[in-house]
# Entry
Amino acid sequence: MPTGDRNIGASFALASLLLLLILHLPQTTTAKTSFKLGGYIKDIYWGTETVLSPSSYIMNLTRARLELRLKFGSHLTIEGKCDSSLLASYMSGIAEYELYESFQKKPWIDMDFRALESDHLLWDLSIHRAKVKLKGGGFELSLGRQRIALGTSLLWQPTDILNPVSPIALERDERQGIDALHLLYRMGATSRLEAALAPYDSWAESSLIGRLKTTLGSYDLGVIGGKKEEDRVLGGEFMGHIGDSGLYGEGLYRWAEDGEDYFTGSLGWQNQFKNGPFVDVEYFYNGGGASDPADYDPLKLLAGELSLARDYLGGNVGYNITPLFRGELYAIINLDDGGQIYNPSALVSVLPNLDWGWGAIVYNSDAGDEYSYYRDIFYTYVKLYF
# Structure
């Protein structure tokens, strides 16, 4: 779709949002209004090296996020999160960074503004979240840039087709939002039906999903179906307990418009041992991957695929050494080529609103293996909440 048509679509969405507000305003003018303002400032340093033309470098990202929540009575809520991000030692001259940028799909509505760009410095202003939510009669209607949580697994979420997150991301808790319309209907205390439309420049590039969730005994069950761009999808999820341990899993079958149809699924076990560590073990099957490293296509990683192989085993061990000091270890093994990832980390609560963390992401693999396309990363950060 041309840029002009895209702007028309964005303008239509914003006009629809304004109309919803106008229609609902008379009901909220006399309602109790609450206002909440917060956020954080995070300063993170990391060192690594390039892949195509090996050379070491250090990056520094300073992100200030302002979070706003405005509530009118019990029916209307407006939420927004605005970012100011300053990135030092910009990678503009590195070929793999430029290649990565060329593969990234931009949000449907452009809410980013580059305030400054130089050889070694970038300053971006952006809208991380911008959502209006209407509630009433068991219904919740949300419109705007939002996080629509899908899936039950901790490392791999096959059913999360809207906001997939890599299990080896530097900031795993940093979840990107999507421009979407989300409708939720609560059918009693334990069941709900929801649908989400994430429009884009054309119907072929848009996504539409529906999900039904309910509780049977001690297990939460869910069914999901719809379309991810041109592909049709159908899957399910569960989460429950066996004794003191948790058991979860999810799976999704994809009828691919281009290429072969395939299934992805994950199955996990977790336990918080009394006066001991939290332990999680998870298996991931990627039917769209290859069992032979010779068949890997590294360009899939740039296009948004989270894995190249077929079988993986991952886990996480976390332990509170003191109430203010926690250590964790994430590990992933590619069962097809034998490559491994290790992510040890530590977090200290220096003050009630100040955290200091550090860690590393270390790859162990042979040439041609999936993780040979990555380089070790060492990082540290401080995060101040306000």
Notes: Residues 1-146 form one domain. The longest strand covers residues 33-49. The helical segments are 3-28, 95-103, 299-302. The CA atoms of residues 362 and 376 lie 5 Å apart.
